[in-house]
TrEMBL record:
Binding annotation for ATP: 11, 59, 87, 93, 104, 114
Enzyme nomenclature, EC number: 2.7.4.6
Quaternary structure and interacting proteins, as annotated: Homotetramer.
UniProt main location, coarse: cytoplasm
Organism: Sphingomonas sinipercae
A biological process term (GO) from this entry: UTP biosynthetic process
Domain Nucleoside diphosphate kinase-like: 3-140
Gene: ndk
Name of the featured protein: Nucleoside diphosphate kinase
A Pfam family the protein falls into: NDK
Family, per entry: Belongs to the NDK family.
GO molecular function: ATP binding; metal ion binding; nucleoside diphosphate kinase activity
Metal-binding among keywords: yes
Needed co-factor(s): Mg(2+)
Keywords on record: ATP-binding, Cytoplasm, Kinase, Magnesium, Metal-binding, Nucleotide metabolism, Nucleotide-binding, Phosphoprotein, Transferase
Source lineage: Bacteria, Pseudomonadati, Pseudomonadota, Alphaproteobacteria, Sphingomonadales
Length: 140
């Protein structure tokens, strides 16, 4: 299988606790290569646009507030079957249900502050990568 790309966010709860390197190491140890990365303070407008699919859900405002509460690290990851591999190393959304050794099991504070976001499909990975990165920023 050829290398594919996926999108990842290291969320404010993880950056606040200085876990950027530990999270990235887990991603790299899982066979994913960081081909683009930047630390940003997501604006409210960016958060609302990125999470727009959830606009009608009751947690939308809290999600946007959380994602703008501190710096995040947005990344493009590359590797064989990158979406699946990233989702495996992230673990279940609810850290209580996540497998041992996964990012969310080890680092998440709660189901909301679960340290990472990752694309759920190749199609969404492309959309999410394009939302935060220009092609020339991806150097792999």
């Amino acid at each position: 299988m050829a290398a594919t790309r996926t999108f990842s966010i290291i969320k404010p709860d993880a950056t606040r606790r200085n876990l950027t390197g530990a999270v990235t190491k887990k991603l790299e140890d899982a066979g994913l290569r960081v081909v683009a990365s930047k630390r940003i303070l997501m604006s409210r407008e960016q958060a609302e646009g990125f999470y727009g699919v959830h606009r009608e859900r009751p947690f939308f405002n809290d999600l946007c507030s959380f994602m703008t509460s501190g710096p995040v690290v947005v990344q493009v990851l590359e590797g064989e079957d990158a979406v699946r591999r990233n989702r495996e190393v992230m673990g279940a959304t609810n850290p209580e249900q996540a497998d041992e050794g996964t990012i969310r099991k080890e680092f998440a504070e709660s189901i909301e502050a679960n340290s990472v976001h990752g694309s759920d499909s190749d199609e969404n990975a492309k959309i999410e990568i394009d939302y935060f990165f220009k092609p020339e920023e991806i150097v792999g």
